[in-house]
Amino acid sequence: MSGPETVDRVLLTAAVVVLVVAGMLLLVRIWRGPSMLDRAIALDVCAALIIAGLGARSAAALDSFYFPIMLVLAFLGFTGSVGIARFIAVRDRPPAHRRPAGKEGKG
Amino acid sequence: MNVLLQIMDTAGAALVFVGAVICLLGAIGMLRLPDVLSRSHAATKPQTLGLLLVLAGVALRLRGGMDLATLALIGFFQLLTSPVASHLVARSAYRTGQVGHSELLFDDLDEQLTVAEEEPEPGPGPKPGPERD
């Protein structure tokens, strides 16, 4: 293996490692997140990280086998957080920050 | 020509790596920022800039017409859908009171909501159920 290909291999492997570390930090946020909205945002980022990881894999292997999966994730990855924000988070309120008085209960 | 292709390969790998590092920065921001809105601000970086850099790197390495079209579609759909999710999450965070009002410098939405609530209702009474506009 010649020099530049080794550089490519090292860069792509480091990219995958960095993406895995980012995914683990996101799992910490999903685990700890005080409200469902934090988890919704984290799941949205998680879909983006999966797309980036599949892209790094495609760049390393030089094939386009996983491109439809990336396309579907980019197209449908937002539906989960939209559903959470629209239907679940209204009922799930952490007791931390409160609105000013008189405006509680507005969904 | 071979040297040019090799340069494109290495530049693509470097772009993928930079995009992954930006994704890591966004994840660190998700972990450390205190609020739903600021976390949403941190979440925007891996979703748009990091992902677009990764896709550009993949496009530099693959260089096929169909692959380039698919990658452009992936970036387009990501750019199209992530503001929708971000907007709905931020709206729901505001409505359920998870925004720190003391840390905001300007809050036009609160003023508008308060004014809309203080106006007299045209109907016989307040509408039942939560507001869904």
Automatic annotation (TrEMBL), chain A:
Cellular location(s): Cell membrane
Transmembrane segments: 6-28, 40-59, 65-89
Keyword match Transcription regulation: no
Keyword terms of this UniProt record: Cell membrane, Membrane, Transmembrane, Transmembrane helix, Transport
Cell membrane in keyword set: yes
Domain of life: Bacteria
Main localization, broad class: membrane
Membrane topology: Multi-pass membrane protein
Name recorded for this polypeptide: Multicomponent Na+:H+ antiporter subunit F
Organism for this UniProt entry: Streptomyces clavifer
Taxonomic path: Bacteria, Bacillati, Actinomycetota, Actinomycetes, Kitasatosporales
UniProtKB/TrEMBL annotation, chain B:
Transmembrane segments: 12-31, 68-90
UniProtKB keywords: Membrane, Transmembrane, Transmembrane helix
Keyword Signal among record annotations: no
InterPro entries linked to this entry: PhaG_MnhG_YufB (IPR005133)
Family: Belongs to the CPA3 antiporters (TC 2.A.63) subunit G family.
Protein known as: Multicomponent Na+:H+ antiporter subunit G
Gene source species: Streptomyces clavifer
